C-alpha cells in the first residue's frame, strides 16, 4: 500500500485524507464523502437563490462587486460545487456498494473469487457503522459499536 503498512480490508489510498481507507476508518470516509456532497448541493442551491435574488432586484444592491464580476463569481462557484457534488456522490455510491457487497474496490478490480461467507447487506452495514442502527450512524464523532451484533456475523 501507499502507506507502507498492512490495512485490513483496504479499499484504496485516498489523497484527500492522506490515508488508506479500510475496515477501521471506512465509516468516516463514507460520512466524509456524503457530507461533502451535501455541502456541495447546498452551495448549488444557494447560488441559484442568490442569482434569482440579484436578477429580480437591482444588481448594485445585491453584491459589493460589479454585476459582471458577480455573475462570473457565481458561475465559478456553481462549476466548483457541481464538480465536487458529482465526484463525492460517485465516491459515496461506490463506498456504499462496496459495503453492501462486502467487497473492497481492490477486490472488485482484481475480480477475486469470494472466499468468505456471504452476509446480508444489512449485516454488512452494521459491521461498518455499528450495531444497532441509531442516529450515531450519521455522526463522525461516534465510534461504531460492534457490541451485540449477530453472532454469525463473524464467520471465519
Automatic annotation (TrEMBL):
Residue spans crossing the bilayer: 28-51, 71-92
The protein's Enzyme Commission number: 2.3.1.225
Positions in coiled-coil regions: none
EC class of the enzyme, as a word: transferase
Pfam family, one: DHHC
Entry keyword set: Acyltransferase, Membrane, Transferase, Transmembrane, Transmembrane helix
Catalytic activities: L-cysteinyl-[protein] + hexadecanoyl-CoA = S-hexadecanoyl-L-cysteinyl-[protein] + CoA
Cellular component GO terms, alphabetical: membrane
Membrane topology according to the record: Multi-pass membrane protein
Example GO molecular function: protein-cysteine S-palmitoyltransferase activity
Main location: membrane
Domain Palmitoyltransferase DHHC stretches: 1-111
Subcellular location: Membrane
Record-stated family: Belongs to the DHHC palmitoyltransferase family.
Domain-level remarks: The DHHC domain is required for palmitoyltransferase activity.
Protein's name in the database: Palmitoyltransferase
Organism: Podiceps cristatus (Great crested grebe)
